[in-house]
Design a protein that fits this description.
single chain; 360 residues; alpha/beta; Aspartate Aminotransferase, domain 1; Aspartate Aminotransferase, domain 2; 2 domains; four-stranded antiparallel sheet; 13 strands; binds 4'-deoxy-4'-aminopyridoxal-5'-phosphate
Amino acid sequence: MSIEELARANVRALTPYQSARRLGGNGDVWLNANEYPTAVEFELTQQTLNRYPECQPKLVIERYAEYAGVKPEQVLVSRGADEGIELLIRAFCEPGKDAVLYCPPTYGMYSVSSEAFNVECRTVPTLENWQLDLSGIAEQIEGVKVIYVCSPNNPTGQLINPQDFRVLLEMARGKALVVADEAYIEFCPQATLTGWLEEYPHLVVLRTLSKAFALAGLRCGFTIAAEEVINLLMKVIAPYPLSTPVADIAAQALSPQGINAMRERVAEVLLIRQYLIAGLRETACVEQVFDSETNYVLARITASSAVFKSLWDRGIILRDQNKQPSLSGCLRITVGTRTECERALTALRQQPGLTATEAV
Ligand code: PMP
């Protein structure tokens, strides 16, 4: 048997997540991974690398719990929110029996993680306005154990209606976990669902330091849920999920000064986002710009693949969303520095728009 044939069938069939980094590119303007555009400096204070780290570093957990307004027992820290997505499947879904449900267009890791564990993946596409198709979900919910809902949603940028979340939570009670992926919540903090955790023991909230905290390279994320859920996830997490330097820097990022600095960055990103959206609305090749509650903007663009390639060749790397259901012609642009947004706008303005006859 070849090595390939030795591998599990579902792994052979798997298309790995096409992360911005894996897609490559030779850019100097990186607007494709929803990162913060400049690096924040930290110093390592822990030098005890001869010792194993704590599994759940106490200071990080306490500070995150305080920041999120929950009890420390309700918080799990992991290697990015991506590990949280995976731990939920490992703890709750029986391969070949249970299913995961999500609503495209949305974040790609829900399907990649379930496929890697040979767990059935059910999709219920969103309505035309990118809100949940609740009756479609009701038809598909039998046998589903975990429902992922990204809000604000990547890549569309808008919030899911809270009322729809309530209907979904009632529908799933006693059957499935409802996971609100709040990776971008710092850009619209009033919309968090953490205040509902008391009411819904099957609600799970995912968070990350990768976006507003400007620490995508750190790989640190959080799962917030009822203590009972956290205890189950603790059974399947690796013995030392975070290295000592990661815990050290995460604790600093979550100090009162760290949180203030994060809020200042958010205010700045929101201003630049306004500038980017206004600029896109005055660009010939841009047909539609969607409202955003996040640090990226989705736009429908004439001849989007050619435009994507043209900017790519000039070192301006955007994210092509053309393949996602209902997103034909759409590119996602991360809010970079003002200069980076200017460069992207200038390059976009050199692209042809629709001719008068095509536009009708
Ligand atoms: N959820 C969503 C919606 C995301 O966009 C991302 C980042 N690409 C993640 C989760 C994963 O975040 P992390 O970097 O913490 O693994």
